[in-house]
Design a protein that fits this description.
Layout (H helix, E strand, L loop, with lengths): L9 E2 L7 H14 L4 E7 L5 H19 L3 H6 L3 H4 L3 H9 L1 H4 L4 E13 L6 E5 L2 E2 L2 E2 L4 E6 L4 E10 L5 E10 L2 E11 L7 H13 L3 H15 L5 E2 L1 H10 L14 E5 L2 E13 L2 E9 L6 H18 L3 H4 L2 E7 L5 E7 L5
Helix pairs in contact: 7-8, 8-9
Amino acid sequence: MRHFDLNPLRLRRFAYLPSAACAGILALFLLASSPLWAQSCDTSSDLEEAVRTAITATGQRYFDMASRGDTGSLRQNAVPSLASDFSGIENAVKERQKDLTGAKAMQKSVFQLGVEGTGPLAHGEFYCGVFGKNGQTSTSAVFYLDGLSPGKYAVDILETTAQTKLSFSLILVQTGSNWKLGGLYIRPKTTAGHDADWFTTHAREYKAKGQLHNAWFYFAEARNLISPLSFMSTATTDKLFDESKGAQPADVPGDGKTTDLAAGATTYKLTAIFPQTVGDDLDLVVKYQAADVSNTTQAYQSNVAVIGALIAKYPELKEAFAGVVARAVDPSGRDYGTLLAMKEIK
């Protein structure tokens, strides 16, 4: 996944919401909305033909640029704030160039978001399509976006038809009669050769065996593969999140909560644990607090200690992951990472 945070388009990572809560949240949102802002979301079927065609044609044109590796043209068509720091998108396109070259794109869905008001929208929740009494339906989606200035935005989601399938999602910003590039997200539809259904099936198997950590991380990977955008929810992702809640371990850090991990005489504060694809493997990443990472020898030793302690505490992880990446993060945000394959962990 590639997530580009820009101004005026600031995107916040989406926290998955249980489907049963969506209808209530929608009602609360409508009652509590400030009169200073108005938000709207139109699905493809809601849009006028000319508007829908303009958005999808622009998305296809930007995809063609990416498939040719023409990041220069992409940059020329980006909003100024993104064009001024384009390295993230350049790297994303370069990383996936082998899969993009010669690939064709199929249109999956398109949405138009609107913001009216006197200034940037602090917290935006855009409810698109038809919702039922239990929340989302097959035609709905929710986008969680912060800091949008008044204007019109489009989310154009495409999918490649090549052997390696990718979600190719664009955030577009209307500028006059044109749609400028505001963000680009390229996400594979498979991890280590497996799709979301495979991870869901194995998550259920791990849960049935009482391996809740493996189950939780595999459910997370399944959601990651299902949704093309981390700040978008659908009925499918909501349903999967509801199912995964029963496997959530109490000792996994998240939402600002740290957990302790003892390694010999030292106790480390873990800040995050999550699955991540590294090459052709699915590895587990563990982040923890460190006072300083400038001494790389010491940071490496701490990383190895954290990895060893994590596997000693949860040996089930050996069955589900090819390796573990430990990342020591100091107060300034600098980090130092170490990857060990499972066979190297003592």
